[in-house]
Design the sequence.
């Protein structure tokens, strides 16, 4: 089969023929229909996120089950699945207390480049390739752990379902699971990429009265307004604090979501949140960076500052639920897709991502049983390779 391989950091991905072994015990083979282009993959290409090479990247995907290994019971050939990059074990302390996104088995091994068992099923010219985030979705097919397969309804396009594998669940879950936004709340979202826009949709779906999106790119601000933001602010030319004060009688927002991955925004979000409010950090800042918060106010104002990994989700519960909301017309997830690409255009897609032109770019596979959403706002040069450049903050 064909896959996009990262042979060395700071080099373009190479689309080559690779071999995929049959699934072992507890493993599942999936034919990919679509996979999203995420900033985390880009950070791995540039070396900002250390990960072994050569590897097949990609961690936001959906497809159809082809075959299963011995002992697999939760999925069967023909099932439509979203792939979860935290194939939780189900029995550790975190899984048993309802926080499978922090699974003690899966999370520490996330970037080890293998399946949970330590096995590798990918190879190129006889040499083993590493997996990425247990999934390796930049390929026509993949082998994953059974726990990574979330069975979803088959009347939803898999090109939409793929986004639920990372961006949508991360943004939606930060609002619904972590911040627990209530009707009438005021929510501030920093960053309007796939994650931030998903947070915007979730906030409006939760009944928020005001949703303020802070984003320097004009096209993303416009999309944020279409998807439910009541206000969209350009931080390079507008006063974010003045907008917040005007909407909240000077009190500050109830919830702030930092989805841009910029550590300095944590302090900004803290300052714009009311007493007793909640700041949820979603974007992952650079390794070694630290946030600075005012010590006295940290105590006196009783604000909650928290992180949210993978939307603090329970994949097998939350992902099907999110797609139900999409099917009911309550979450227009297809609007997140700025452009679709073929696998051969994947490097062009990353160039579009780092330029800020994409809410979400999606690679689709023509042999899969799925109709991709119509492309809009197409940019970039199909088929170009390009070398890594600047790093975006948010997926």
Sequence:
């Amino acid at each position: 089969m064909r896959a996009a391989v990262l042979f060395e950091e700071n080099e373009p991905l190479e689309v080559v023929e690779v071999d995929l072994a049959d699934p072992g015990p507890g493993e599942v083979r999936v034919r990919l229909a679509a996979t999203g282009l995420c900033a985390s993959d880009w950070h791995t290409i540039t070396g900002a996120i250390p990960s072994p090479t050569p590897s097949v990247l990609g961690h936001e995907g959906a497809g159809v089950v082809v075959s299963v290994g011995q002992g697999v019971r939760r999925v069967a050939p023909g099932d439509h699945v979203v792939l979860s990059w935290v194939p939780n074990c189900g029995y550790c302390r975190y899984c048993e207390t309802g926080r499978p996104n922090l699974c003690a088995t899966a999370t520490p091994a996330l970037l080890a480049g293998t399946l949970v068992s330590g096995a590798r099923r990918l190879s190129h010219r006889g040499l083993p390739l590493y997996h990425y985030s247990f999934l390796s979705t930049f390929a026509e097919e993949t082998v994953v752990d059974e726990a990574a397969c979330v069975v979803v309804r088959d009347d939803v396009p898999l090109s939409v379902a793929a986004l639920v594998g990372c961006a949508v669940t991360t943004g939606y879950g930060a609002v619904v699971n972590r911040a627990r936004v209530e009707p009438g709340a005021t929510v501030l979202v920093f960053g309007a990429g796939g994650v931030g826009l998903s947070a915007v949709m979730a906030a409006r779906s939760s009944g928020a009265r005001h949703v303020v999106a802070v984003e320097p790119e004009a096209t993303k601000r416009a999309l944020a307004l279409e998807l439910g933001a009541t206000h969209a602010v350009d931080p390079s030319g507008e006063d974010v604090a003045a907008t917040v004060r005007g909407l909240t009688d000077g009190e500050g927002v109830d919830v702030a979501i930092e989805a841009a991955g910029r550590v300095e925004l944590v302090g900004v979000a803290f300052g714009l949140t009311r007493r007793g409010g909640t700041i949820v950090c979603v974007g992952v800042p650079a390794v070694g960076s630290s946030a600075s918060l005012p010590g006295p106010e940290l105590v006196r104002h009783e604000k909650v500052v928290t992180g949210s990994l993978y939307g603090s989700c329970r994949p097998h519960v939350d992902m099907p639920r999110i797609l139900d909301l999409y099917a009911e017309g309550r979450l227009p997830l297809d609007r997140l897709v700025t452009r679709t690409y073929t696998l051969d255009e994947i490097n062009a897609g990353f160039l579009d991502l780092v330029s800020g032109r994409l809410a979400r770019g999606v690679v689709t596979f023509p042999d899969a049983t799925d109709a991709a959403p119509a492309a809009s706002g197409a940019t970039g040069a199909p088929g170009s390779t390009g070398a890594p450049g600047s790093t975006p903050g948010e997926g």
Summary: The two ends are 27 Å apart (CA to CA). Residues 2 and 17 are 5 Å apart (CA to CA). Residues 370-394 have pLDDT under 50 and may be disordered. The first helix runs from residue 39 to 46.
